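Input structure tokens:
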């Protein structure tokens, strides 16, 4: 059987594994494991370990653009010898630029790999194998595309100077606390002491809300499991045509398989808008 592993950056040290349980069954176990690079030069096997059902190898280096073929041969406690092969392509991974609260012109993610690791650890989630940087970038794109028009306030910088929707000025979280916005004594570019309303918790104009970071982490987990899952291409089906007098129109029944991720909606709920008014944007009652 030939496995295709997620690609690796030449600068990364990554681990890959093979689950032998389907081949060995519950009555047999792995007794020894040997890894070999069959094709390709420049890739290094750093170390390897195995359990009763799984073998793992750590790899470093590799030549950009090259595809390697590796084999893993095991012997089992029951006396069997089995071999699996896998291909690994070396490519440069995407460059992730995490928004730091200053309104970067080239930021493409609200969360870093470290934030994703911490979130998964805190929520007892095993991070799926895959390119975490690419997943975080696509996850941020999903959050931006689905929620951009529902944030309170406005960007702190003009379009083109700030690539993502956060940080924002005039944003707040509806967390049941009430503060007097006009008493914040903002200065400089953020001065607006005439603003009379009492609203929820004020989000600083250099702050990326924890809700946004957590939502990106949840979205990234799904992208790691199934790349492209969050924003699939849709083919419209069940198109119907009707005539009303001299007017004809077409419509389709259903909208296709667009995922609705309720946990992300729940995480973002405290900072989403519900009606219009404030700063020309929609606002809560």
């Amino acid at each position: 059987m030939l496995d295709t592993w997620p690609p690796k950056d030449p600068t990364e040290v990554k681990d890959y594994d093979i689950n032998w349980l389907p081949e060995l069954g519950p009555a047999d176990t792995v007794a020894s494991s040997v890894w070999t690079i069959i094709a390709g030069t420049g890739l290094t096997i750093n170390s390897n370990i195995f359990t009763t059902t799984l073998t793992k190898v750590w790899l470093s280096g590799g030549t950009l653009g090259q595809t390697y073929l590796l084999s893993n041969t095991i012997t089992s406690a029951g006396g069997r010898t089995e071999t699996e092969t896998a291909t690994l392509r070396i490519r440069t991974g995407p460059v992730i630029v995490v928004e730091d609260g200053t309104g970067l012109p080239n930021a493409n993610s609200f969360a870093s790999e470290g934030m994703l690791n911490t979130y998964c650890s805190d929520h007892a989630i095993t991070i799926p194998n895959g390119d975490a940087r690419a997943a975080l970038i696509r996850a941020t794109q999903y959050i931006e595309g689905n929620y951009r028009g529902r944030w309170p306030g406005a960007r702190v910088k003009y379009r083109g100077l700030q690539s993502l929707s956060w940080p924002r000025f005039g944003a707040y979280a509806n967390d049941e606390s009430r503060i007097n916005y006009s008493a914040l004594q903002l200065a400089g570019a953020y001065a607006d002491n005439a603003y009379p309303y009492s609203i929820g918790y004020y989000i600083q104009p250099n702050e990326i809300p924890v809700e946004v970071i957590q939502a990106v982490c949840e979205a990234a987990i799904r992208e790691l499991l199934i790349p492209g899952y969050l924003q699939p291409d849709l083919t419209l089906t069940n198109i119907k045509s009707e005539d009303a007098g001299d007017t004809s129109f077409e419509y389709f029944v259903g909208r296709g398989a667009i995922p609705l991720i309720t946990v992300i909606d729940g995480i973002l709920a405290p900072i989403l808008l519900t009606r219009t008014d404030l700063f020309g944007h929609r606002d809560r009652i």
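Residues 192-199, 275-285 have pLDDT under 50 and may be disordered. Residues 9 and 91 are 5 Å apart (CA to CA).
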